[in-house]
Amino acid sequence: MLSEVLEMLAIRRDGIYVDCTFGRGGHSRAILDRLGAGGHLLAIDRDQEAVAAADVSGLSADVRFAIEHGRFSDLGRFVGERGWSGRVDGILMDLGVSSPQLDDARRGFSFLRAGPLDMRMDPTQKTSAAEWLADVSERELARVLREYGEERFAGRIARAVVEERRRHPIATTTDLVRLIEAAIPFADKFKHPATRTFQAIRIAVNDELGQLQQGLNEAVEVLAVGGRLVVISFHSLEDRIVKRFMRDEARGREIPGGIFEFRSSPRLAVLGKPLKAEEDEIRINPRARSALLRAAEKRAA
């Protein structure tokens, strides 16, 4: 959704922008192409391989560009260290797992590729998916599968995991896929049986929803008046958080006040309806089918 992102960011040549999910630099490169000599772009990514890709691509040689290894929750710190708090003209968050991560069997994100059951967006973090599965309780696992994966057979899969790990470690993507296939009574003919479980475990291991909520809060704090927040989500859990956040910030948040309830001043104005990828893009990149873009603008206090 590159053209939609650029339109919603409304890039000024001398502006300050943050790409919170660098990936392999497609959005960052396009933003830089629209910046003048006085513009600045900060990129952030949890994945050290993505950070290293900025050097390989040559983007790091651009004096207008900088990249940091970090998470959404680090946004305020990285911006503050540069003296940009309250001055940022646009922030982009392209959520979820990136195509290079999915396509690399060593990362363990895909149920279609045999590899170690890792799923860490930041390989330097302590707990992999295999280690998380080895320790999580049956009850908590069922909750995660139900809430984060909307998996109807969450209880069956959680019981199967607990029973299997007593006999053998669940160490690879293939181990987990076979377990899921054996645990469910029938599969959804439109989805691979492991889709929801892999999504749920990935979200839990990386604290994706918690990081998103914190990142959204920090984004509003660092934006300049008139600055824009653009978020691309790929599943309903993410989009629900983004939608509610933008809605609440556009209305003003409720503040408890005893008998009376108060609302804070609105901090955002929602920019139109959510956008979806065009059919031409979906044909080239089928993963864009579920993409949903929402944008909002910072309002004056």
From TrEMBL:
Keyword list, A-Z: Cytoplasm, Methyltransferase, rRNA processing, S-adenosyl-L-methionine, Transferase
Gene Ontology MF annotations: methyltransferase activity
Catalysed transformations (reactions): cytidine(1402) in 16S rRNA + S-adenosyl-L-methionine = N(4)-methylcytidine(1402) in 16S rRNA + S-adenosyl-L-homocysteine + H(+)
InterPro entries per the UniProt record, alphabetical: RsmH (IPR002903), SAM-dep_MeTrfase_MraW_recog (IPR023397), SAM-dependent_MTases_sf (IPR029063)
Main location (coarse class): cytoplasm
Single Gene Ontology BP annotation: methylation
Compartments reported by the entry: Cytoplasm
Record keyword Phosphoprotein present: no
Keyword Methyltransferase (UniProt): yes
Job of this protein: Specifically methylates the N4 position of cytidine in position 1402 (C1402) of 16S rRNA.
Family according to the record: Belongs to the methyltransferase superfamily. RsmH family.
Name of the protein in its database record: Ribosomal RNA small subunit methyltransferase H
